[in-house]
From TrEMBL:
<comment type="pathway">
    <text>Amino-acid biosynthesis; L-lysine biosynthesis via DAP pathway; (S)-tetrahydrodipicolinate from L-aspartate: step 4/4.</text>
</comment>
<dbReference type="InterPro" id="IPR022664">
    <property type="entry name" value="DapB_N_CS"/>
</dbReference>
<dbReference type="InterPro" id="IPR000846">
    <property type="entry name" value="DapB_N"/>
</dbReference>
<feature type="binding site">
    <location>
        <begin position="151"/>
        <end position="152"/>
    </location>
    <ligand>
        <name>(S)-2,3,4,5-tetrahydrodipicolinate</name>
    </ligand>
</feature>
<keyword id="KW-0220">Diaminopimelate biosynthesis</keyword>
<feature type="binding site">
    <location>
        <begin position="107"/>
        <end position="110"/>
    </location>
    <ligand>
        <name>NAD(+)</name>
    </ligand>
</feature>
<keyword id="KW-0520">NAD</keyword>
<comment type="function">
    <text>Catalyzes the conversion of 4-hydroxy-tetrahydrodipicolinate (HTPA) to tetrahydrodipicolinate.</text>
</comment>
<feature type="active site" description="Proton donor">
    <location>
        <position position="145"/>
    </location>
</feature>
<dbReference type="InterPro" id="IPR036291">
    <property type="entry name" value="NAD(P)-bd_dom_sf"/>
</dbReference>
<dbReference type="GO" id="GO:0008839">
    <property type="term" value="F:4-hydroxy-tetrahydrodipicolinate reductase"/>
</dbReference>
<dbReference type="GO" id="GO:0016726">
    <property type="term" value="F:oxidoreductase activity, acting on CH or CH2 groups, NAD or NADP as acceptor"/>
</dbReference>
<dbReference type="GO" id="GO:0005737">
    <property type="term" value="C:cytoplasm"/>
</dbReference>
<keyword id="KW-0457">Lysine biosynthesis</keyword>
<dbReference type="InterPro" id="IPR023940">
    <property type="entry name" value="DHDPR_bac"/>
</dbReference>
<keyword id="KW-0560">Oxidoreductase</keyword>
<keyword id="KW-0028">Amino-acid biosynthesis</keyword>
Length: 253
């Protein structure tokens, strides 16, 4: 399998290079924002050229590029592993449109542990009535992270909303400040903390009048995301066009 990496010079890109080698796949090369004087891996001028040379492209770049990447990957017919967080509704629509033509694995988090947390979050939300259990999501990341709440936190919120058969956009409360009034019944709350070099911590709390249940995931190394993305790359090859998640990769979807 020939794997291309969009954003190969970033921290995640470098880990992906190592994981591709560990998995026994062939690294075609990658793209980066600026071309260095020397590089140990082949660099392509753009994602379109990378897609033409690859069996699958892994993309951990940045929000704002998803629509352009969707267009060129559709044109090349190349499967897409997308782990970029902070996508807008318009960009997510572009990803969904791409999935009509190519197989796309889009995940807010490629960790197997987080994938299981998402599955459990939906089951717990279905079992714990919104009228009796308030749902709150607390996440903390390194100080350089630019989006909040994190993509993983949003994913957990969507899982809770799915379990309760509501749309997250209708019940989401994020960044409370000032005199906000009482907490609405059925709301799904978010709190985003930033500091240091924390890889990622996410906790889902169901708070009832007589008990509290907390589901927590802590990542200690970004490598778990890279390992999961390469696993998804192997899984997606020869799949039919469609929008997939890590639940499908792990056999849970």
């Amino acid at each position: 399998m020939r794997i291309g990496i969009a954003g190969i010079s970033g921290r995640m890109g470098q880990m992906l290079v190592e994981e591709v080698a560990t998995a026994g796949a062939a690294l075609v090369g990658g793209t980066r924002y600026s071309t260095p004087a020397e590089s140990l891996v082949p660099l392509f001028p753009n994602v379109a050229a990378l897609a033409e040379a690859s069996d699958v492209v892994i993309d951990f770049t940045r929000a704002g590029l998803a629509e352009a990447h969707a267009e060129v990957l559709i044109a090349a017919g190349t499967p897409w592993i997308l782990g970029t967080s902070g996508l807008s509704a318009q960009e997510e629509a572009a990803v969904a449109q791409a999935a009509r033509w190519i197989p796309v694995v889009y995940a807010s988090n490629f960790s197997p542990g987080v994938t299981l947390v998402l599955a459990l979050a939906e089951q717990m939300a279905a079992a714990l009535p919104a009228e009796q259990y308030d749902a709150e999501i607390v996440e903390m990341h390194h100080r350089q992270k630019v989006d909040a709440p994190s993509g993983t936190a949003i994913g957990i919120g969507r899982a809770v909303a799915a379990g309760r058969r509501v749309d997250l956009s209708d019940v989401m409360q994020s960044g409370r400040d000032g005199h906000t009034g009482a907490r609405p019944t059925g709301a799904i709350g978010f709190a985003a903390l930033r500091g240091g070099q924390i890889v990622g911590e996410h906790s889902l709390l169901f708070a009832g009048a007589d008990e509290q249940i907390v589901l927590t995931h802590r990542a200690f190394d970004r490598r778990t995301f890279a390992t999961g993305a390469v696993r998804a790359a192997h899984w997606v090859r020869d799949r039919a066009p469609g929008l997939y998640s890590m639940k499908h990769v792990l056999g849970l979807g």
